Hints:
314 residues; alpha/beta; 27% helix
Amino acid sequence: MSRARLPQGVGTAAPAADAETAASEPSPVDSANGAAASRPSPADPGTGAAPAADAASDGAAQAPAGGATPVGRPIVEIAGLTKTYGKGEAEVTALDGVDLVVEEGTFVAVMGPSGCGKSTLLNLLGGLDTPTAGEVAIAGEKLSGLSDDQITELRRRRIGFVFQFFNLIPVLTATENASLPLRLDGDRQADAKARQWLTQVGLGERLDNRPDQLSGGQQQRVAVARALSTDPALILADEPTGNLDSKSATEIAQLLAEVSQRWGRTVLMVTHDPRIASFAHRLVLMRDGRIVGDRPLDGTREAARLALDESGLL
């Protein structure tokens, strides 16, 4: 299964505008209707055809339909992943023998109490830290067999990051921020690709704005465009809605769902908010460094909360 590539038709089917112009907060179960049809066929990458418009008239990213978890090649493969800090009596086990496989095009939410290992998991997946034991493979490539330079290259080209506080450079425009990974990689079309992605995430009229000229939701859209600009296999999102108001948070959750459904990327998102988690295809629950639950979500707003309650995590 090949991933859908960046469509050439700039400005088509952009997601809903930011919180200032959002009319109302959609329900995941309502948004789910017809979502699968909007995702471009994996057999047609690079044709220049823009993705079909969503069923909703406002063009907002759609929440996943219940039970519609994609099945593709594994993008994330984790076996026996363990991470400890300190030694002797001061030793702390952040991850304890975690096994996980996430297929291409799947949107996974990871939840659990503070200190359960969620952020450590993302750091190990992103090659930002090394495990004490176990193995991580991204798109079939084992990180343990790579040099530091090779891990840096894989991280820059195959993994996109979205952070809670956006991590934008204040003096750069939206285009310059979104194109930064491409510029670091020497891509001569960096600005053009960045402008395409910014348009696709609904910021076609904000290309030259600096972060202080954008709302929080708009800044996070720039961060999502930056993450997508290198055509990665995997998007890692660490509390991407934690610094946003509720309407902007909903729009970012919808956008990440669209990143998975329409553009075929695998998304792994850490969140404390069950409402935001409900936009994912799948929920992974963690406690004390271990996975204690792993289940599909049905697209209803209460699905994640019910799963947390059943697992004793509420």
